[in-house]
Amino acid sequence: MGRMRRIWQPEIYYHVTMRGNNRQNIFLNDGDFALFFRALDYTYAKYPFTIIAYCLMNNHYHLLIRSPVEPLSNVMAILNKRYSEFYKRKYNYFGQLYETRYYASMVSDPISLLNVSSYIHQNPLNTTRELVGKMEDYNYSSYKYYYHQIKSAHPFLNTDLLPSLIASYPDIQPSDYCTYCENFRIHLEEKKSPLHQLMLT
């Protein structure tokens, strides 16, 4: 039996995760992270997409992504194939780099976008051993662009949407997106989410 065709809605953001085969590391050093961004840029040139949050960890990555023109499965196929080719050439690696097909879940409402993006940005702090003391200190996450209010050199990253959601909902208590992320961390510490338990490394 063939694989089920993935549902794609061009107006919807998706939380995409991809993990190394047998949970092996797929990023070994700074150069590997740079190669992944090259793969993202290459894919974007073919099929434009928008990312509003990302975090690259040693053995997996998270993207909060929308593909308005091309089915997301096509975007992810190019991205994962391109990075896999980079990795295999660099390390003379044979075999399957990724554990399985990418995981994707639709994130359709504003509060879910805020929560999922906050979860993604919390990843460097929610490991067995914290990688950094503060979210803004992690180099391979989009959070630093929100925290320092600087523009990314990568055209696919949009840092306007999430802060605008905070401004559009006066019943949300935090005054800005970064405060929302910090409050979300407190919530996670009080009660670990099923999503966190699934992706904990």
Description:
It is a single chain. 42% of the residues lie in helices and 13% in strands. It contains seven helices and four strands, in the order E-H-E-E-H-E-H-H-H-H-H. Helix 1 runs antiparallel to helix 2. The longest helix is centred in the middle third of the chain and has 20 residues.
Task: Name the features.
alpha+beta, 4-stranded antiparallel β-sheet
Helices and strands, in N-to-C order? EHEEHEHHHHH
What is the count of DSSP helices, taking H or I runs of 4+ residues?
7
User: What proportion of the residues is helical, as a percent range?
Assistant: 40-55%
Largest sheet: 4 strands, antiparallel
Shape: globular
Name the strands of the widest sheet in spatial order.
Answer: 2-3-1-4
Based on CA atoms alone, the radius of gyration comes out at 17 Å
Structure classification: alpha+beta
Integer average pLDDT: 88
A few lines on this structure:
The chain is of the alpha+beta class and 201 residues long. A hairpin with a 3-residue loop joins strand 2 and strand 3. Helix content is 42%, strand content 13%.
Topology of this protein?
Layout (H helix, E strand, L loop, with lengths): L12 E7 L10 H17 L3 E7 L3 E7 L5 H20 L11 E5 L2 H13 L20 H6 L12 H8 L8 H14 L3 H6 L2
Antiparallel strand pairs: 1-3, 1-4, 2-3
